[in-house]
Amino acid sequence: MLKNFQELKKLVLKRPKKIVAVSCANDWHTLEAVFKAHEDGLLDYILVGDENKIREIAHEHGIDNFSGSVINCTDEKESAEITVRLVRDGKADFLQKGLMQTKTILKAVLNKEYGIPTGNLMSNVALLEIPGYHKIVGVTDGGMIMYPTYEQKEGMIKNAVRMFNYMGYDKPKVAAICALEIVNPKMPETVDAANLKAACERGELGECYVEGPISTDIAFKKEAAEIKGFDSPVAGDADIVLVPNISAGNMMVKGMLLFGGAKMAGVVMGAKCPIALNSRSATFEEKYYALVACCLISDIIK
Amino acid sequence: MLKNFQELKKLVLKRPKKIVAVSCANDWHTLEAVFKAHEDGLLDYILVGDENKIREIAHEHGIDNFSGSVINCTDEKESAEITVRLVRDGKADFLQKGLMQTKTILKAVLNKEYGIPTGNLMSNVALLEIPGYHKIVGVTDGGMIMYPTYEQKEGMIKNAVRMFNYMGYDKPKVAAICALEIVNPKMPETVDAANLKAACERGELGECYVEGPISTDIAFKKEAAEIKGFDSPVAGDADIVLVPNISAGNMMVKGMLLFGGAKMAGVVMGAKCPIALNSRSATFEEKYYALVACCLISDIIK
């Protein structure tokens, strides 16, 4: 069990150093996160992007020399292709999205000629450190998949479980949360949640426990489970939360960031390497922790 | 602008005292909230339910005499009917749901013979006091309407706006939040949000400002709006938040209650009086604040 991002970082330091390829690195928060992660001994890096701008931005922040290499490229699409090729050729372990559109990097990752697809679904996992919760929790998917089908939910669980297995969890606890903890045929997500639980019991979703439908309060709080008479190993102890749609995940995560003092690391799973992917307005800290998380899980596929 | 529930309470004390009719009052948290609100001078009450059980529960908590009247009734459906008739006959100002199913009280409210419908949509508004936000915010609807249509969203906004108008707001600010702040035709809620904004500008949604689509961070935080270049009177200052579906509202609200130190008052709007309606596992405090809120808005329709 990982209590917080500090513990995650300690785990990274015990493993071989990774190399990140940064696409469109001409953004200060992105550079700041990469430089700090390098300084902390977590990773080496290759910056891809407009070299003049990169050096200018670094200079503005008092940094005139840095150890990582820079590949000059002023085109967004080309920058994505270069970073993806670096991973495919074994010169980098994972990707980070810089100042660019998400769809550009995802298209490059899935490219048939030079891409790094696995055939699995690509999905977003937001790792959260929440002061009121006793451990890190992964929320999937508040960022990429809008209205997941049942099959996509299976893929989302598999991706998140693989991530947590790699973080040292033998059997992560997955809560397929809904607005209520009872199957209601008028609410398809409750039916899906019950079916996902059954699929997990048949061993179809990898090494994990899935509980569902389960409400948010029961997933996070044992007392709520006791009051409602809900008995499950997942109750009050969820590692992974599967949300029924992008709005639910997005609003829950943002609520926790805005008002719960939570910290986030956004990672895209499903390709041959993880992608550190945050919104363009993300803080330095969010970008840093996304790098830390990716260092830990970037040799899943190899 | 009401900063918190204490301010809401002060406002109630300035207005004529209200009478609540409690359906299935045989529940300690419900009684506790009613007794406390009475003691605080906010309301008088009529308890409907199993009289023996009500007196027994009160006795167990050291209360053997109370001023309010009790109407003995051991049947859930009948209890709902009696409370609704009390409001229709002008003997009570609003309803509180006790230990019973939500659908039973809603059916009684909508009954064609003795009910108190208005022809408007019935919807849930969760008033929240969040330590990190500068004022009370209403979230609609994380409790009743599962997948609202565009027309239902109009009704939800009108109900919440009417509530805030009555709380002293001339033009409450409504954020039609989505996972992103741009219209994406593949995401119908973003299209709805833009159309709701336009409907508001045409004066079709009552006295309010509607902004949408708008992301959660922009709705609650001015800094986020500035970074993203989003200019709107609603940015960072939302009074009412319209969520695209029940899961989104439910998970956002529960996240804030669990990890943001928020307090909630659940109210159902749309009938001739408001209904104080919380989940059966709600705390005393939630039930108390729902009563306070209803005292303030219970002569909307009369």
Structure description:
Two copies of one chain form a homodimer. With 302 residues, chain A is of the alpha/beta class. The first copy, chain A, has helices at residues 5-13, 28-39, 51-60, 76-88, 102-110, 150-166, 188-201, 216-220, 222-227, 246-259, 284-297; strands at residues 18-23, 43-49, 69-72, 94-97, 123-129, 137-140, 173-178, 209-215, 240-242, 263-269, 275-276. An eleven-stranded mixed beta sheet of chain A has the order 3-2-1-4-11-10-5-6-9-7-8, sandwiched between helices. In chain A, strand 1, helix 2 and strand 2 (43-49) form a beta-alpha-beta unit. Chain A is globular, with a radius of gyration of 19 Å. The model of chain A has no long low-confidence stretch (mean pLDDT 95). The A-B interface holds A 130-133, 142-143, 146, 177-179, 186-187, 189, 215-217, 220-221, 224, 227-228, 243-252, 254-262, 281 and B 130-133, 142-143, 146, 177-179, 186-187, 189, 215-217, 220-221, 224, 227-228, 243-252, 254-262, 281.
Query: Per the principal axes of the C-alpha atoms, what is the gross shape of chain A?
Result: globular
Largest interface: A-B, 41 and 41 residues
Mean pLDDT of chain A: 95
How many helices of chain A? The count is 11
